[in-house]
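Cont'd.
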Amino acid sequence: MSKPIFEARDVSVTFNVGRGRNKSQVHALKKVSLDVNEGEIVGLVGESGSGKSTLARVAIGLQKQNSGELFYAGQALPKVRTLEDRRKMQMIFQDPYSSLDPRMSVKQAIFELLDTHNVLPKEKRLDRCKELLSLVKLPESLLDSRPYAMSGGQRQRVAIARALSLNPQFLIADEAVSALDVSVQASIINLLSDLRDSLKLSILFISHDLAIVRLLCDRVNVINLGEIVESSPTLSLFDNPQHAYTRQLISAVPKLDAIVRNAN
Amino acid sequence: MSTSLSLRPNILSRLRGFRVNNFRLYLGIFIIFVVVAMAVLASHLTKFDPISQDLLNTLQGGTAEHFLGTDNLGRDVWSRLLYGGRTDLFLASIAVLAPFVIGTVVGAICGYFSGWVDTLVMRIADVVVAFPFYVLVISLVFILGNGVGSIFIAISLVSWVAYARIVRAETMIVRSKEFIEAAQTGGISNQKIITRHVLPNVITQAIVYAMSDIVLNIGVIVTLSYFGLGIVPPTPDWGRMIAEGQQFLAGGYYALTILPALAVVITSLGLSFIGDGLAVALRVKR
């Protein structure tokens, strides 16, 4: 059994909403624990507002948890991340139309990260860019393109290339394909799967699309109202769901036989 | 499609906005170029001193000597228009710089960090906006005393607010984009995020506003000197020319008032055209 690369232990997040007499608290995450092993793709599914994205934001350090701890390869992650912590894990965002600066070319976006972390001498940066583009299967001719000249799928590949530029071992994909066309979704999923094999990446794949999760993930966590209600290997989750909410989610997926039945 | 676009030389793609038929921008640049050239080359375009009086030749219409005539003190109108433009344009332009810089920086910081600093600064801005612009500027100049310096300070104190508000609103829009979060997760410092990702995406609005702000400043300077504040009398200036010409309107000497007024209108029109044109040219494709 391989070692866990990322662990969350009893993570809770509470948001204060409203002011004065209307003040109340929303418990976005209630003592959530989750782990991702080396080379594993772990799914996190749940409906809107279930806390999926909050968990992703806590994991990457965009949101501070109220209690609980995060570990990377057995070491606790501090609440204020250092550059070194940042290099360990990166995130792919949901909307490729908003996750790239419209004024920056592909090359500039990648150079910016490389320079911030000072990981490569200046003359090697361009080679690294080309390497990254070929990794995400984009032509080198896109190096100087700005986002408006690219399709959604191409933009998401650029976002992946940027996330990979610092050689992270762990990627968080927050609804990374849900803004894309179905055919493009498939190609991005294949890419993530290939990258897992070639770079030994671990991925936390957050989605509301059960079909994609079934295809891509080794294990699946089901989250509902801020709590993880079920965590099991993908096959057993779909064949033999234990929790009522999981069964509800799975039965909500439209099936072909239902359409056939209606047609008759 | 996308590859053919990307193969286009970079410099051309940067100038794309300027190549499409942006007639207003060209017209505005042309007008302002002519006006500025006339103001800068004033000494070559007239042989008369704008402040030297010729009391034997007052209130003359266009003659071969003074082709726009002379005013009540026998000063050449054409010469005063040119030198007046020098005063007004220079002051209006430098009075835009300080508010532009202060307002943009304050607005970007407030919009990016929000929190109590933002609340405090925006309440101060609300207080400034609560007073009518002219009332505030006129009282400030009155307090600070006449002179170019006090006009500059008065305008700066009041008009940074507009830039701060525009840039803050734009910053809050940009801040909600995922590329800001992507930069944060990449470990890029807040200072660099503001200068590299936020400002380039919001500065357009401030630049466009700056063009109309120069117009506003010309209006302020002209109005102030019309009221006898700000620019001190012998210095030629369009506002004072309008004010001094006014008393001779009834006598049929329309040109004394209308010519400087026309100069204000044409300059303002040119700057507005540039502002509109820039808004189109600097629009970034998403």
